[in-house]
Write a structure and sequence with these properties.
about 120 residues, mainly beta, 4-stranded antiparallel sheet
Amino acid sequence: QVQLVESGGGLVQAGGSLRLSCAASGSIIRVTAMGWYRQSPGKQRELVALITNDDYTNYKDSVKGRFTISRDSAKNTVYLQMNSLKPEDTDVYYCSAHLFGTTGWDVYWGQGTQVTVSS
């Protein structure tokens, strides 16, 4: 059993900052990648940022230069530092982890955390 627990969402004014955290726990043998996605009602979930276990990163174009993804491999935790937030960043943000556990390879998701940016 693997769980992803997110924290750090909330309400912020445009131009402000938030830091999201996501900790994976449970029967984990190896994590190969963790990432953040976001989703609005009626829309597909989209990648915001991804980091692999060799520190390769990938970002959605609209967040490059404003968001930074990082990880603590010892804690199986991923962070998303979000600066210069814009109202269009408002969404539910989901953490994901691609990992090898006792049941094999799989992708796991967190419960989602709301980020609201007011203008």
